[in-house]
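Practice problem. Given the sequence and the SMILES for copper (II) ion, write out the predicted structure.
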Amino acid sequence: MPNRLLKKSAGSLLTLSFISFVACSESQTVSLTAEDFRFVPNLVRVSASFPLTLTVYNAGREMHDFDSPILLYASVKPSSERTSKSDRPGIVLEPGKSVQLVMSPPPGTYLYICRRKGHANMTGTLIVE
Ligand SMILES: [Cu+2]
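Answer key:
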């Protein structure tokens, strides 16, 4: 009986490491820069087949937001970026700061914006296909 248990758990371990290997080797990375007052690039195309690591860097002198409700809902934020306030959507980026998000969005077209007053031109589109 103990022998059977051992074999079973060894099998599960193998399966787990195989899955994480696939996830690590097949991923895609996109870097966005928030400038004063635009996102660069403002059009991104990615594949829906692989997880996406999205980095947003604030290269400007102003505070900027990165908001895309549907994308952010499906993403894993670093614990330092989690806030208990749900009334303020999106991620606030101080000048020189960046945030990294890992997500697997379904195919679709996602708008990303900065919600700050006067930053209405800061928009971009992420196309997942
Ligand atoms: Cu902005």
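Check your answer against the key. Residues 9-23, 82-87 have pLDDT under 50 and may be disordered.
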